[in-house]
Amino acid sequence: MPINYLAIARQFTRLSESYLTPAEQEMFTEILNQLYLSMADGNSCLELNKTDLDIQQSIEVIKKSNLAHEYIGKLPDKLVALPISLWRVSDKVFLFLTRYLAYEYRIYQNVTNLVSAEVPEQTNRDAVIDKLRELQKTGLPNTEQLNAIIKSCENRFNIISGGPGTGKTTTVMLLLWALYQLYGNELKVKICAPTGKAAIRVRDSMLAQINRFKEKNHSLDMKCFDSLTSDSKSFGNTIHKLLGVQQNNIYFRHGIDNPLDVDVLIVDESSMIGLPLFSKLLDAVNYAQIKHIIFLGDQNQLSSVEEGYVFASLVNLNIEEENDNPRDLLDFNQQVSLASKLLISNRNNALIANIASLILNTQSDKLINELNKQNMLHELKLTNVISHILHGNHGLINYIEKVQTNTEYYLANQTELFKLFNQQSNLCCTNVGIFGTENLNNLLEQQIKQKFAITSEWYTGRAIMILQNDYSLGLSNGDVGICVIHDDVVKILFDNNRVFIPEVLPKYSQAFAITIHKSQGSEYESVNVILPKMNNVENNSLLSKELLYTAITRAKSEVNIFGNKEIIKQAVCNQIIRSSGIEFLR
Q1: Burial of 408 (0-12, 13-18, 19+ CB in 10 A)
Q2: Cα angle 250-253-257, degrees, rounded to a multiple of 5
Q3: What pLDDT does 469 receive?
Q4: Residue 303 burial (C-beta neighbours within 10 Å; 0-12, 13-18, 19+)
Q5: Helix (H) and strand (E) counts in the chain
Q6: Which residues pair with 498 in a beta bridge?
Q7: Nearest to 198 by CA among 470, 426, 501, 517
Q8: Tens digits of per-residue pLDDT, 84-94?
Q9: Distance CA 169, CA 299 (A)
């Protein structure tokens, strides 16, 4: 449930009334408003240095409110139990809700404890690594991937950061093989991701990679994966499901007092994890048992929808400490030369790799020239957008025709149905507005119903997206369902062979067009990116380098952008760096 920042601000203002003069209370209210606006934008705190407030006066008023404690420099082991924390460190002045400073502090403490801890004894490590070096002759792992595997074996805590196609799945699969050889096949492994969609994708990617290695008759014994891949509780769950959601309870089943029974924890799409969940996940680890934790992600993608900048902050922390600390974190991008150019070098085609590289390197003029040269940039007209989505390569009309003509086949082969649907995705910046998901979905559905003479709400091929978790049904926010009608029975099919009738579903929306945020953790053959005109976006900060990069890298083979040069330049030059205190906790 979203936090009601305004209600909290009002409550704090009332609590401070007897300690502040009217003028001071007015200033305190303004400070609180700026704090909560900052948090609503995804920051974990407010940097007073970045505001137009008088810093010294602000500090005095905050301290006088009787609601805050001031920290200078290094934080104590335990924070004072007041709702607001003022923290002066280096040349920064941070204002936190104490709970959020505690989240960051707990993450830092847990990570540093892991980084400094020795790994369990590995008597055969050299032999295992020699086996992987021998495998290199086949092309996998490459040198960067092997370095990542070696470093992950040598440390309890690791981050592997890289864009689509850098081989994170291959690296993790071979890392797991190595860990099984080091510790035995009874190793308790958990693999999870922030969303149901991302969890399913990491499961499918891992299974496909394991099967590819088996088919190629590599010299590696892959039987060690049998128990992992056959256990649904260990392989491809959401973080929430792993921690154990309890009905009508804000606390998870697993935490400090009831830790997870796991030896190796692997978390994919870590850039999507908000600050509170990241902290609770690390709190749930049994530090007497855990052998290795590996967080995977892409630091260049959009950060979590919730507050926090954890993944990128930890990667940045690693970069700064890399030469000083022999047991530092692993930033996969930093292990390769010209990392931005290699972000999507393996899976995506060279053209999309080049486009992503130009975005990351803020080369807006070269980017626009390349988009025009490749006929990837199109005029932002509603008729153009609708026509292309319906009739272009992998268009919706062709998709609907195939599904309605072969209903029985797709009902029996749900994997093929989703493969067909994922040939194209249409990505918007927002839900509202002329070019938002709501309007585009309505217009697209009108055209589809007119074309196929459909009069009912539900029809074969209709796509929806779940908007809220329903743990009793096993459905998560972001899950996509596709309608198939057979023998007059309406069925909504989801990944992993789940089938429901519409009446039992939690809140959902149409899914022919989705937001770029909702596309994270997914990949599609072709992507259409709709970038609205500036005056159609309530907050221009929505258009960012991270937003455009995330949208582009969802595509495997084709990208079309509907927008203009000014919008592209604005997005590429607008990098979103959230405020966080993690980098200052050292």
Answers
A1: exposed
A2: 105
A3: 87
A4: buried
A5: 23, 19
A6: 494
A7: 517
A8: 999 999 999 99
A9: 16
In DSSP notation, 374-441 reads TT-EE---HHHHHHHHHHSTT-HHHHHHHHHHTHHHHHH-HHHHHHHHTTEEEEES-SSSTTSHHHHH
The conformation of residue 136, written as its DSSP 8-state character, comes to G
- Is the pLDDT at 326 greater than 70? The verdict is no
Average pLDDT across the chain, whole number: 88
User: Alpha-carbon distance 409 to 429, whole Å?
Assistant: 35
Count of beta carbons in the 10 Å neighbourhood of residue 77: 6
Rounded CA gap, 187 and 196, in Å? 24
Instruction: For residues 199-224, give the mean pLDDT.
Output: 84
The amino acid occupying position 444 is L
Nearest C-alpha neighbor of 355 from the set 346, 143, 364, 253: 364
- pLDDT value, residue 331: 44
Residue 398 has which token pair? Answer: 């062709």
Which amino acid is located at 519 in the chain?
A: S
184 conformational bin, left if phi > 0, alpha if psi -120 to 50, beta if neither: left
**Can you tell me the distance from the alpha carbon of 320 to that of 337, in angstroms, rounded to the nearest whole number?**
17
Fill in the amino acid letter for 170.
T
**Which domains are delineated in the chain?**
5-99 (no CATH), 117-322+333-342 (3.40.50.300), 350-573 (3.40.50.300)
Q: Mean pLDDT, to the nearest integer, of 348-354?
A: 79
Distance from C-alpha of 518 to C-alpha of 538, rounded to nearest angstrom? 19
Q: How far apart are CA 435 and CA 533, in angstroms?
A: 9
Are the C-beta atoms of 160 and 332 separated by less than 8 Å? Answer: yes
Q: State the pLDDT at residue 343.
A: 38
Region 127-139: mean pLDDT is 90
- CB of 138 closer than 8 Å to CB of 218: yes
Q: For the sheet containing 292-297, what is the strand order? A: 157-161, 292-297, 264-267, 189-193, 235-238
Give the integer Cα–Cα distance in Å for 584 and 316.
11
Task: Indicate the range of 156-160, 211-215, 279-283, 451-455 predicted with least confidence.
Answer: 211-215
The answer to whether the predicted template modeling score (pTM) of the entire model surpasses 0.85 is yes
CA-wise closest residue to 32 among 61, 71, 1, 3: 61
> What integer pLDDT is reported at residue 536 of this predicted model?
45
Contacts of 90 (CB under 8 A, 6+ apart): 584
Output phi, psi for 235, to 5 deg. Answer: -120, 110
Please give the average per-residue pLDDT across 435-441, as a whole number. 97
